[in-house]
Amino acid sequence: MATLDRDVVIIGAGPTGLTAALELRKAGKSVAVLEARDRVGGRTWTGEVGGATLEIGGQWISPDQTALYSLLEELGIETYERHKAGASVFVAPDGARTEFTGEDFPVDAATVAEMRRLTAELDVLAAEVDPDRPWEHPRAAELDRVSFHHWLRGLSGDEAACDNIGMFIAGGMLTKPAHTFSALQAVLMAASAGAFSHLVDDEFILDRRVVGTMQGVSLAMAERLGDAVHLNNPVLRLEWDADGVTAHGADTTVRARRAILAVPPNLYSRISYEPCLPRRQQVAHQHQSMGLVIKVHAVYPTPFWRDKGLSGTCFGPGALVQEVYDNTFHGDSRGTLVGFVSDVKADELFALDAGERRARVLASIAGFLGDEALNPDVYYESDFGSEEWTRGAYATSYDLGGLLRFGPGQTDPVGAVHFASSDLAGAGYQHVDGAVRMGRRAAARIAAELDGSAYDESYDGAAPAFGLKPAGA
Description:
Number of strands: 22
Distance between the termini: 36 Å
C-alpha cells in the first residue's frame, strides 16, 4: 500500500477529474487522481469490436460547447463533421414511413404549428433561465412541482405534438419518462444548450466528433499527468475535516489538503465518509438518479443508406429505437449506424434474451432504412446501466421538486471535500463540455483557497483558469 501526500486528491479520472488535475498542476499544486476502473474516460469510452472502432460512451460536440473546444485546442486534438447529407426518415406511431428534409417532422400542419409554438415557449423560458441557477427563475417553484409530461399537456391538447417535443428531452437527453422529472429540469436542459431549438436540431447538437474519439481527450490528459493517475483504485473510504482528507484506494492512500469528488452523484453513496456527510447532502444525493438508455451500434460493409439519398438520421416517437444516426468512424469505408432505446423501452428490451433483443432492435432500424439494416457485420449494445462505476446514462437528474430544493447547494464544499461533474453543470449539463467547465471551476476554487486568495464566483470554466498551453508548448 502506497501512501502519498498531495495538495489535492481527485476521485474519478473522467473528463471532469482529469481537467481539474491539469488545471491544478498549472496552478502549481500537487495532485493524485484515483480511478476505480482500469481505464480513464468515465462515461466516454472507445471499444474495438469486430475490428470496428465504436464510441461506447459520449461522443458529439455542438458549436456552443466552447469549454470543450478550448481543451481540444490545448491538447492539439482535431474534430470532424458528422455525416448529415441526405433526407431524414420519420416513422409515425401508426407505422407510416416518410422521408423528409428541413426542420419540421412530416406530420399534419396543426401538429407542426403546435410543435413550433411549444418550442418557442421553451426557448423563451430557456433564455430567461441562468443554467447555473435555474432555481432563481421567478417561476421556478411552479415549474419544479409539475412533471414535464403534464406541463406540456397543460399548454397543448395535441398529443402528437407533446410526444414529439417530449422525445427530445425525455428520451434524447434525460433518458427518463417525461412524467418523472419536472418542467424546470427540462428547461435547465434547454438552457444548458443555449436554447430548446438547439436540442431539436440534430445538425446543431450532434454537429461534430473528435478525431481519435472522445475518450482520446481523457487519454491525452492522462498522458500529461503521467504517474499522478492511479487506476484500479476505487475509493470506498474517505476521512475528512475542514483542513484535509485521507482517501483510501485499493492500493494507494492519499493524504491531501482538499478532495474533489469527480464522479456522478449516484455514486457518492459508494463511499463511507468519516465523519458522515451532513444530513442535507445525504438526502440530496438520494434525489439525483441516472436514466437508462441502450446505445446500439451496427456496422455494415458500406453506408448503404447514403446510396438511397438518406442521411441516416431517423426519428420515431413510437418506435422501439426512437433515434438513429450515421455514426461512421473517421476514415472508415464501412458504414456505422447508432440508435437509442430509452427509459421504459430499455426496461422492456433488457427483459429479453440477447438474440431476441438484437432481432427487435435491428427490425426497428430496418423500419427506417430498409431490410439491409437487418444483417450488420458488427452489432454491439452499450449498457452503462450495468457498469459498476456508472450505473446508468447519460447523467443524473433530480426527481420532482428536487432541483429547487437541493440544487442551490449541490456544489457547496463540505469541509475539504468539493463536488464536480457534468451532472452538476449549468452550461454543458450532461455533456463533456459541462464536465470540463466543472473541473476548471473546482480547480480554480481550490487553488484560491489554498493560496488564500479570492475566488471569482462569475468564472464559468469556458476558458482555462490558468492559461491555455497548446500541445507541444
